[in-house]
Amino acid sequence: MKSEQDGAAGTAPVRDLSYELLGIQIENPFILAAGPSTDDIDMVRRAFSMGWAGAVLKTTSVEGTRVDLAYPMISSFNHDGKLLFGMGNIDLISAHHIDRVEATVRTLKTEFPGKLVAASIMAGKKDDWQSLVGRLENAGADLIECSFSCPQGNIGEDPGKMLAQSVAATELTARWVKEAARRIPVSIKITPQVTDIVDVARAVQRSGADALTASNSVQALMGIDIYSFVPNPPLAGKSTYSGLTGPAIKPMTLRTIAEIARHVTIPVLGTGGASSWRDAVEFMSVGARCVQFCTLVMHHGFRVIDDLRSGLSNYMDDMGFSSPLDIVGRALPHLAVHDNLPRRVVRSVIDESRCIGCEVCYVACRDGGHAAIDRRESRIPLVNPERCVGCGLCPLVCPEACISLAEA
Amino acid sequence: MQREERTPPDKTAPGVFDDRRAQVEAERCLYCFDAPCTSACPVHIDIPAFIAMLRSGNAPGAAWLVRNANALADTCGRICPSEVYCQPACTRGKQDAPVRIRELHLYATRSERAREFHPGTSPPTGKSVAVLGAGPAGLGCAFELAKFGHHVDLYNDGPPGGVPLKSIPPFRLPEEDLVHDTGMLGRFFTAHDGTIDAPVFGGITRNHDALFIAVGLGRDRSLGIPGEEMESVFPVLEFLETAKKRPHTLRIGSRVIVVGGGNVSLDAAATARRLGAAEVTLLYRRGEQQMLVWSAEIREARRLGVEFRFHAKPFEIVGRGRVESVKCRTMRPGGENDDSGRPVPVEVPGADFFLPADSVIVAIGQDVSADWLTGLSRTKKGFISVDGKFQSSMAGVFAGGDAVSGEGTVVRSLAHGKQAARAIHEYIMRKG
Q1: ipTM > 0.85 for the complex
Q2: What CATH number is given for A344-407 in this structure?
Q3: Domains of chain B by start residue, with CATH
Q4: Of B263, B266, B80, B270, the residue nearest B181 (C-alpha)
Q5: How far from B357 is each of B317, B329, B360, CA to CA, in Å?
């Protein structure tokens, strides 16, 4: 059934958001990440027609690779009424092998020549990696992304361990891939779960790969049914670790991207937990050149592209930016090590005209701060400037956002 | 993800939130410190605490908190006019709308209906208290006294439940909710079923360390106008009690006039409509703004098609054996205010009118009916006089509920019982 709502309400006006990424002209920074939403050509067609600038097709492999899926594969980390605050999956790579993906790339490039059609690959042996790259390049793919980091299952050379958790294996494998890619760029998708992300990023840069995709889902245990003690997702009494995505991992991804961007010069393709145009702006401000989405689309559908484009468009107008690239790296100069942070004296200030008297700030400060808020008969709390150190807790708990910090 | 043995909330019960709705509503609570809602609740249920427990998935904890504070928890979950108590105090109302506290309370207790309730009780004190009357005040007091470790003898004529049992219409309070509450309270006292007279009262007084009188009101006030003796003129309590127990015996005809402007009048009017009366008119000598009722009840009465004639009172009921019409006099607010702070209604000459009617329900309030209560001082209006600690004019005799302050809410009476229990406890422990 065709949805009557598709496009019926019109879409908000959007300015030109196009720019060049790795030598490829893209319509906007919003790309579908490799995942369930890019495993089927009709899904990608719909996404492209709705305004997505590109898609990374779900990770494929050479013919004969066994993909032994187990269901159910998705579970949720709900928090405080927010469904799918984090999404976990025990999905594996696509069940579609390279022969089918080659065909998909050809068709999509014919039907949508202006869209970025990327393919994600995973293999074990050098020959397989290189054959995948060659075949996709010939099929017309714009970009190849290599999954060195899918935490769910593992079909790499070192079972049970992600490729990108080894600096040496990362560099070696990235070299094989880069060697095989003669015309198109290659990006290596890495995991944030390493001792030092900078070591891995430098290895990728040394390999000659063109970009880094940062970062993959985070291996996690999604939760336990406390009555049966079976973890989620439950598969007849058994479970396993999942790849965690969604809003829950956004702060981790931000730090990963920032840390990479601070230390290597090759571009970063951002992914992992962005769920709005604001998140995309944040990712770009710490160095991402584009932003990939998966969980958001799995939850709310391709239609979210309307808000992503419109929101970014209005933001750029407000900020006077002419290209999304104007955002890239803007937050990085504001990062400093703790020793170099400015030391100044700040105090909480309550806007009494807006306070609704819940006294949540009072109890938070008393039991988690410095007992620097006094109660009054009126229930409007009073900050005691002698005790307040300006820790910044009370503004965060105020449901009316009427507490701010001011220089003392 | 629920334990299999857990009793699921009774989703067939109308008006009870399902799990998801309760979760969403619970998430709206701001968890105010020293919360205004708890202060506004007459029995001071720790509302943010029980809502936090619902939010964490701890319905047994939530239900325990509610039940421990409110002896008639299921009943109040249904009928408490939260719009006059906790909800106007809710801080969330300053942002958008108050949290629907009553429904969450009902959800908590209903979800855990099958679970036994064990309040914390003190070791037996060897003291014995008599509670007279098993309505909300008496039950609330007995429950608290038992928790203090005192033995309680509860005297009542008939099964426990008081006004909620006898006259709150079933469409407002499903009987199973009240019966569940009273059933749960049964093990906190020794029940004595029977009428009380002066000798019985004397015996009770001699055999106990203290008394709590919570006999409520029993006698409907009459209009004192000609024609009131006719068979289709009903005192409101008699009408509501009969409508609950033997509705088929009530012959009210198609045109019913209800006299009075309280919640009981609205219950009577709504009940008359539900019994099939085509036209129900509520006659009140003051205006709508002066009615001491809850807006939800007025809305419900209007929805049922009850008509309102404000600023009018009957001065004669006309008919031959059965009512045929009522002669009414137009009233207006006078310049002076009465004790309640409302203008005294005064008659408007030359503006009398007739209302045709088949029956009249008189709902202008009730008096204390316990004739054996002779030794206690009364107020100007005839209620039992008590001080701030519910102590009557006789040492060791405490009183509360409707018998001391007239028609009131269930939770108000529960609060009287609860506060009186504390005063009684202090009294008998001091006495040694």
Answers
A1: no
A2: 3.30.70.20
A3: 19-111 (1.10.1060.10), 128-218+370-431 (3.50.50.60), 221-366 (3.50.50.60)
A4: B80
A5: 9, 16, 7
Distance separating the N- and C-terminal Cα atoms of chain A: 62
Contact between B32 and A360 using a beta-carbon 8 Å cutoff: yes
Q: What ranges do the domains of chain A cover?
A: 19-334, 344-407
- Find chain A residues with C-beta within 8 A of B30's C-beta: 358, 360, 399
Residue A150: active-site member: yes
Partner residue facing B33 (CB), from A81, A227, A360: A360
pTM of the model: 0.85
A95 CB within 8 Å of a chain B CB: no
pLDDT tens, per residue, chain A with 408 residues = 444 455 455 678 889 999 999 999 999 999 999 999 999 999 999 999 999 999 999 999 999 999 999 999 999 999 887 899 999 999 999 999 999 999 999 999 999 999 999 999 999 899 999 999 999 999 999 999 999 987 765 444 454 478 888 999 999 999 999 999 999 999 999 999 999 999 999 999 999 999 999 999 999 999 999 999 999 999 999 999 999 999 999 999 999 999 999 999 999 999 999 999 999 999 999 999 999 999 999 999 999 999 999 999 999 999 999 999 999 999 999 999 999 999 999 999 999 999 999 999 999 999 999 999 999 999 999 999 999 999 999 999 999 999 999 998
Q: Do A356 and B33 touch (CB under 8 A)?
A: no
The CA distance from B148 to B155, in Å, is: 19
Smallest Cα distance from A84 to chain B, Å: 15
CATH number of A19-334: 3.20.20.70
Specify whether the backbone of B15 is left (phi greater than 0), alpha (psi in -120 to 50) or beta.
left
CB pairs under 8 A between A and B: 37
Residues of A in contact with B27 (CB under 8 A): 80-81
Q: Does B4 touch chain A if contact means CB atoms closer than 8 Å?
A: yes
Instruction: Tell me B84's DSSP state.
Output: T
Q: Do B32 and A362 touch (CB under 8 A)?
A: no
Q: Which of B1, B4, B91 sits opposite A357 (nearest CB)?
A: B91
DSSP assignment of A153-187 equals S--SSSTTS-GGG-HHHHHHHHHHHHHH-SSS-EE
